[in-house]
């Protein structure tokens, strides 16, 4: 069924000038852009967004990385969006990411891995609503 996922182009990829390249890979893979903006997470936003990882050893590093500069936030729509988008982005660790994935091409490291993709339909809805009002969803 057609459904939605949520993505962020993370600060590392924005800093390196990869917004256009990543959006091209996304649209060429058949995703429709429902919502799109350049924005920046505050420390408090990043803490809330990644609250599920609060007990992990890398939480502090993750929060400071994700709030250090602008990101691109987007809601995407496609058949089987959540699963297909996670295939398109590739493994969390770019060393394990397959050829043709966004992380293979653009990620720097396990932490600075260029893109986020929601892990479930439920989280996609929560994460999309975190960034976009109803009138910003097309
Ligand atoms: P993502 O899977 O999008 O969301 C959780 C993020 O935590 C992950 O991307 C990485 O950016 C980060 N992360 C996961 N594992 C590690 C790790 N071992 N060290 C540093 N950051 C990590």
From TrEMBL:
GO biological process, one term: GTP biosynthetic process
Enzyme Commission numbers on file: 2.7.4.6
PROSITE patterns associated with the record: NDPK_LIKE
MF GO annotations: ATP binding; metal ion binding; nucleoside diphosphate kinase activity
InterPro entries recorded: NDK-like_dom, NDK-like_dom_sf, Nucleoside_diP_kinase
Cofactor: Mg(2+)
Catalytic center residues: 116
Keywords, comma-separated and alphabetical: ATP-binding, Cytoplasm, Kinase, Magnesium, Metal-binding, Nucleotide metabolism, Nucleotide-binding, Phosphoprotein, Transferase
Reaction catalysed by this enzyme: a ribonucleoside 5'-diphosphate + ATP = a ribonucleoside 5'-triphosphate + ADP; a 2'-deoxyribonucleoside 5'-diphosphate + ATP = a 2'-deoxyribonucleoside 5'-triphosphate + ADP
Binding site for ATP: 10, 58, 86, 92, 103, 113
One annotated Gene Ontology cellular component of this protein: cytoplasm
Main location: cytoplasm
Domain Nucleoside diphosphate kinase-like stretches: 2-136
Source species, domain of life: Bacteria
PANTHER family recorded: NUCLEOSIDE DIPHOSPHATE KINASE, NUCLEOSIDE DIPHOSPHATE KINASE DDB_G0292928-RELATED
Job description of the protein: Major role in the synthesis of nucleoside triphosphates other than ATP. The ATP gamma phosphate is transferred to the NDP beta phosphate via a ping-pong mechanism, using a phosphorylated active-site intermediate.
Family: Belongs to the NDK family.
Protein name: Nucleoside diphosphate kinase
Lineage of origin: Bacteria, Pseudomonadati, Bacteroidota, Flavobacteriia, Flavobacteriales
């Amino acid at each position: 069924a057609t459904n939605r996922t949520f993505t962020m182009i993370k600060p590392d990829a924005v800093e390196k000038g990869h917004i256009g390249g990543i959006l091209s890979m996304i649209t060429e893979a058949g995703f429709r852009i429902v919502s799109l903006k350049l924005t920046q997470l505050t420390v408090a936003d990043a803490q809330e967004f990644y609250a599920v990882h609060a007990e992990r050893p890398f939480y502090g590093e993750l929060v400071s990385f994700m709030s250090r500069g602008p990101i691109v936030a987007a809601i995407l729509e496609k058949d089987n969006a959540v699963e297909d988008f996670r295939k398109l982005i590739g493994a969390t660790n770019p060393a394990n990411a397959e050829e043709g994935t966004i992380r293979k091409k653009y990620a720097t490291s396990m932490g600075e891995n260029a893109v986020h993709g929601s892990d479930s339909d439920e989280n996609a809805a929560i994460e999309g609503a975190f960034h976009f009002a109803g009138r910003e969803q097309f």
